[in-house]
Design brief:
The complex is a heterodimer.
Chain A lengths: L4 H7 L5 H16 L5 E3 L3 E3 L7 H12 L8 E3 L17 H20 L23 E2 L2 H11 L10 H8 L1 E3 L13 E4 L4 H5 L4 H13 L4 E4 L7 H14 L6 E2 L9 H4 L7 E4 L2 H11 L9 E9 L1 H12 L9 E6 L1 H9 L2 H8 L1 E5 L15 E4 L2 H11 L2 E4 L2 H10 L11
Parallel strand pairs in A: 2-3, 2-4, 6-7, 6-9, 7-8, 10-11, 10-13, 11-12, 13-14
Antiparallel strand pairs in A: 1-5
Chain B lengths: L5 E9 L1 E9 L32 E4 L8 H11 L5 E4 L4 H14 L5 E3 L2 H6 L5 E6 L4 E5 L1
Helix pairs in contact in B: 1-2
Classes of the chains: A alpha/beta, B alpha/beta.
Pfam families (chain B): AcnX_swivel_put (PF01989)
Protein name (chain B): DUF126 domain-containing protein
Keywords (chain B): Lyase
């Protein structure tokens, strides 16, 4: 692998031992990725803000001790705490106390390194919008897939540790999705038979993402037949589900996303490896696979995974504005970023949500830390990602539903589904 | 080479040595959300739900899901609840990073090795397997 003189100097300690350690990790990964060189990056999104144990804290604190600093604009992902609403995350058990303490230590270390305390998994909804073709090093699976697919920026599937090392060195391995040839669409999902009615549903998009993850794995799926100009929020829901159900880090929607003006462009003028026809029956079956709950018991409803945008909070407020409050037996949560919450306050949206009984969660998310009441058994969500991870993370059963079904169920105090939706 | 012993050569993603019974996964696994602190698979969607990775040579075609898997793997290696070695059919940055950081912080030398698809198909679950990976070559042997 070729290193520039400056990169080699960093590796040899010219910028301090912290930068040298970061460069060892970046070059170690570059070798593992088969990269011929490193690439200069314009921004970093650090995923490693959740406390997963001592290793993450040890790593961040070691960098601080060794004098490392971020050298490119760096944002922070959700952490283990809601710093604006300290009572939101429970800290009763020993484990919960450990997570809270570990989360605080991580936050302190990353801020000491120079990162911005944005605490959101959707930095692209704030002011962080990398340009098409710009090389970045983003971590957090939904942020990665959104940056690559919807913004057309270039990041590989980075994880904890590499993100902060890229922020310190300003470099990432020139491999994976930084390279043109790896951005080619590989698997075509033909949605032309779904019909306009189904494709108008918000529920269709997490389900399409789930199917893409199941079918494509870590390959790049290409969607044909989605309506032109699919909204960013729908693409966000699709990408998040595809990234968790498979390992999708880039998808193309022909006619909508930057690198897919045509099917040929998305496929780089070669035939696809594989084509699958998506039918309404497959979407209905994806909903059944993602829904583990049986019966109509409902304890909580959680939306905003990835973090809800202003438009999504507005849509929820519109559903809730006129009509009954949420049932006393159901807790309804909406997770969002602190920047979006501030804007929702300015627009009077936050007030409508709180008056209806919605608990607004920022800086973290309901499926990564202790927020739900311990008695919670069944949760409804409109997020394919939440539905995928919550059964293992939280030990709850889930029902994947549209936003309207979420609101109707929250009001009724039980699961209310519209089975005709996907026909 | 006989029917009961074999040796394969792979590509090194992370150097080290590890021995244990081989656990071959029937589906990709995300460590984050998929494995608990004791090394047991807790992803209910996974075909090997309930099986432990601890001390095994873990064979999986590819990684999957969240980028937080690197932290979870590093923590498993720190506490001694992780796999003894990892063998894959596709290179995986997230898995490599977990091993790299465990080595940087705690001196754990857990090998991560990639085999060709044909060779990957030849590794068998349950067989005591040794993975020996230096900076430029990896050998996987069982008897």
């Amino acid at each position: 692998m070729q290193l520039e003189p400056g990169e080699r100097a960093t590796l040899e300690g010219a910028d301090g031992q912290g930068a040298a350690m970061a460069m060892r990790v970046v070059t170690g990964l570059a070798r593992a990725s088969g990269a011929e060189r490193l690439v200069e990056i314009a921004s970093v999104h650090i995923d490693g803000c959740l406390y997963h144990g001592q290793a993450g804290v040890d790593f961040a604190e070691r960098l601080v001790e060794l004098g490392a600093r971020t050298t490119v604009p760096t944002t922070l992902n959700v952490g283990s705490l809601d710093l604006l609403h300290p009572g939101m995350v429970r800290t009763e058990s020993e484990t919960e106390k450990d997570v809270a303490a570990g989360g605080r230590r991580l936050a302190t270390a990353y801020e000491a390194l120079g990162a911005r305390p944005t605490w959101t998994c959707a930095p692209y909804q704030a002011d962080v919008r990398p340009a098409r073709g710009e090389h970045i090093a983003w971590a957090e699976s939904n942020a990665i897939v959104f940056a690559n697919s919807v913004l057309g920026a270039r990041t590989d599937r980075y994880g904890d540790f590499l993100d902060v090392c890229a922020a310190v060195t300003g470099r990432a391995p020139y491999a994976g999705l930084h390279l043109d040839e790896n951005r080619r669409g590989e698997v075509v999902l033909d949605c032309r038979g779904l019909g306009a009615g189904v494709l108008e549903l918000d529920l269709a998009y997490p389900l399409l993402g789930y199917l893409a993850g199941e079918i494509a794995g870590t390959a790049n799926p290409v969607f044909v037949g989605l309506p032109p100009g699919v909204s960013e929020d729908r693409l966000k829901a699709l990408g998040a589900a595809a990234a968790s159900a498979g390992g999708v880090a880039l998808f193309h929607v022909v006619g909508t996303t930057p690198e897919a003006p045509t099917l040929d462009a998305a496929l780089h003028d070669r035939p696809p490896e594989h084509t699958e026809v998506v039918t309404p029956e497959r979407l209905a079956s994806a909903r059944r696979e993602l829904s583990t709950a049986e019966g109509d018991r409902l304890d909580a409803v959680s939306v905003g995974t990835p973090h809800a945008s202003l438009d999504e909070l507005r849509a929820l407020a519109d559903e809730l504005a006129d009509g009954p409050r949420i049932h006393t037996g159901v807790a309804m949560y909406a997770s969002t970023g602190r920047t979006v919450l501030e804007r929702a306050r300015q627009h009077g949206i936050a007030e409508v949500l709180q008056d209806a009984g919605v608990r607004l969660v920022v800086d973290t998310c309901t499926y990564v830390t202790s927020i739900l009441d311990p008695s919670t058994r069944v949760v409804m969500t409109n997020s394919g990602k939440w539905a995928h991870y919550a059964p293992a993370n939280l030990g709850v059963d889930v029902v994947l539903a549209s936003l309207s079904e979420c609101v109707a169920s929250a009001r009724a105090g039980r699961v209310v589904l519209d089975d005709g939706l996907l026909r | 080479m006989t029917a009961s012993s074999a040796e394969l050569v792979g590509t090194v993603l992370h150097a080290g040595t590890g021995t244990g019974p081989l656990l071959k996964l029937d589906g990709p696994l995300s460590f984050w959300g998929g494995v608990d602190g004791a090394g047991q698979i807790i992803d209910r969607h996974h075909p090997q739900f309930g099986v432990s990775l601890r001390g095994r040579v873990l064979a999986m075609e590819s990684g999957r899901g969240s980028s937080s898997s690197a932290s979870v793997l590093a923590e498993l290696l720190r506490t001694g609840n992780g796999p003894a070695a990892i063998v894959m059919a596709r290179p995986d940055a997230i898995v490599t990073l977990g091993a790299l950081v465990a080595a940087e912080l705690y001196g754990c030398a857990t090998p991560v090795v990639v085999l060709s698809r044909e060779d990957y198909a030849r590794v068998r679950g349950g067989v005591r397997t040794t993975v020996d990976a230096s900076d430029d070559s990896a050998r996987i042997a069982w008897t």
